[in-house]
Write a structure and sequence with these properties.
Layout: H1 17-42, H2 54-73, E1 80-84, H3 91-99, E2 106-108, E3 112-115, E4 118-121, E5 129-140, E6 143-153, E7 156-158, E8 161-167, E9 170-176
Parallel strand pairs: 1-2, 1-5
Antiparallel strand pairs: 3-4, 5-6, 6-7, 6-8, 8-9
Helix pairs in contact: 2-3
Length: about 180
């Protein structure tokens, strides 16, 4: 093309081949810059999730308590009392209502008494188990970590943290969170 000005369609008069290359390079730099700004904004991490409605919290607690009942009471048919920690008044009743289809004999925490480190039904010497749930730490709107607790006697107690997720339209406890172990 030796010294001749070549106009490319759509570039307008006065822009030759070199002008088109520079314009394309500027356009690519602008796209890369826009992408980098957007990626940086996304990479800043998300703010902690706002806690969902109280009904949702009740369902999360119920998922944890169901899991604990299977984990700790599968062989024993002990009377079971449930306590919800770090939740507003009325939550325990909603949780027991949510538990009723699968654990109809779940009692209020007031129905159990701790005597010398052992759990009994209040006013009797009938052995029982105390399951606790709460508080909830929301990871996302559909994921939480929940402190759990099982107490049967001084030598038989556990305080795991559980992972709970919203899956297939219901809240499911995936099990204890395992930390401090190399993979």
């Amino acid at each position: 093309m030796g010294g001749r000005l070549v106009l490319l369609p759509g570039l307008g008069a006065g822009r030759g081949v070199m002008g088109a290359k520079r314009a394309r390079a500027r356009s690519v730099r602008a796209c890369v810059f826009s992408f980098a700004v957007a990626a940086a904004g996304l990479g800043c991490g998300r703010a902690p999730a706002a806690p969902p409605a109280e009904d949702t919290a009740s369902l999360v607690h119920a998922a944890v308590l169901r899991y604990q009942a299977r984990q700790f009471l599968s062989e024993d048919r002990l009377p079971m009392c449930v306590a919800i920690q770090g939740a507003p008044d009325g939550t325990e009743a909603r949780v027991r209502e949510a538990l009723h289809p699968t654990l109809p004999d779940a009692r209020s925490s007031d129905s159990c008494a701790l005597v010398d480190g052992d759990v009994y039904l209040a006013g009797s010497r009938v052995p029982a188990a105390l399951l606790t749930s709460g508080p909830i730490r929301w990871i996302a709107a559909d994921e939480a970590e929940v402190d759990g607790g099982f107490t049967r006697s001084r030598s038989s107690s556990s305080r795991p943290v559980y992972r709970v997720v919203h899956e297939a339209g219901r809240w499911v406890c995936l099990g204890p969170v395992v930390t401090g172990m190399p993979l």
